[in-house]
Write a structure and sequence with these properties.
Order of helices and strands: HEHEHEHEHHEHEEHEHHEEEEH
Radius of gyration: 18 Å
Structural class: alpha/beta
Number of helices: 11
Number of strands: 12
Helix content: 25-40%
Distance between the termini: 35 Å
Length: 311
């Protein structure tokens, strides 16, 4: 399989990706669009003319974006609460050109579960977005060439999906392992959509934004931040050379969500604005997408598991 390439390098910004692209009349939902990478994703899409709905637990947090950008609105959505997801889907009217599954939580220090008993990182990062995509499928089908973009992470290289104990009910809870598993599940969601909904014209791809200082890292302890090279001994944030700005981190997301360069591309994984090579995952692998994240059988099995919860 030939990898998809683009003319954009790792330092391109989201605005660079959409320079000269007209998204007038296109409707996009961005989960977690009120902070971090989500803000820059919304800003680039709206700047190109799209009508953007910021789906966030706190719509008030998106007020500056709503005031700044025409065509942007904010609607309440708590991805960890399936009732909230169902209500959001029930209230949506009209076609949907792109769904950007951007929101997430990372490395919760203790095991937490949502109302359905799902471990919270898996519930928020995967199950909520799965339920959202399934609930919005009619709206996606009503659009011309709709896309689903799932924001994953390089953490998917560290762990496959544990179907024997996905909720850490028997094995000891590990904050990073739980996060890595949820990000593998995110890639499998894109694979599953591409397998099941291609006949309906819906494309889906996943991506890793790279290393960025955002609120996502709020649960990381100082020792972990120092191990990442992102904090000094006195607790001051550092920005290593491999870190990106939020605008650069949002570039690959925007590429998948709206660039004409990705027309007809589905079921792939991108980083640094290029499609990634499929590799063996492991503790020392720093780039690419793990074979377990792209496994079509695992995607089907996870889909059925998630569907049994969502109903």
């Amino acid at each position: 399989m030939t990898l998809t390439t683009t003319p954009f390098g790792p330092r391109a910004t989201a605005a660079d990706i959409l320079d000269g692209v007209d998204l007038s009349g296109r409707r996009v939902i961005v989960t977690g669009g009120a902070s971090g990478l989500g803000v820059e994703t919304v800003r680039a899409l709206a700047g190109a003319g799209a009508q953007v709905t910021v789906a966030t637990r706190d719509p008030g947090a998106a007020a500056p974006l709503v005031q700044e950008l025409p065509g942007v609105r904010a609607v309440a959505l708590d991805l960890s609460d399936l009732d909230s997801v169902r209500a959001f889907c029930a209230d949506w009217r009209g076609p949907l050109d792109a769904l950007v599954a951007n929101a997430g939580v990372m490395m919760l220090p203790t095991r937490q579960v949502n109302a359905q008993g799902w471990e919270m990182q898996l519930a928020t990062n995967h199950l909520g977005h799965f339920a959202l995509a399934v609930g919005l499928r009619p709206a996606l089908q009503a659009a011309d060439a709709p896309r689903v973009t799932v924001v994953s992470s390089g953490a998917q290289l560290r762990a496959g999906f544990d179907f024997d104990d996905p909720q850490f009910e028997r094995r000891p809870y590990d904050p990073f392992l739980a996060y890595a598993q949820s990000k593998t599940a995110d890639v499998l969601l894109a694979v599953g959509i591409s397998q099941r909904w291609a006949d309906h014209g819906i494309a889906a791809n996943a991506c890793a934004p790279g290393w960025i200082h955002t609120n996502l890292t709020r649960h990381l302890d100082p020792a972990t931040m120092r191990a990442f090279g992102a904090m000094d001994a006195d607790g001051n944030l550092l920005t290593p050379a491999h870190y990106k700005t939020p605008a650069q981190g949002a570039a690959t997301t925007v590429l998948l969500a709206a660039s004409p360069l990705l027309d007809g591309v589905s079921g792939r994984y991108f980083e640094d604005n290029q499609e990634s090579e499929v590799v063996d995952g492991g503790p020392d692998v720093m780039a690419g997408v793990a074979k377990w994240s792209m496994d079509p059988a695992a995607a089907d099995r996870l889909w059925d598991l998630a569907l049994s919860v969502v109903g």
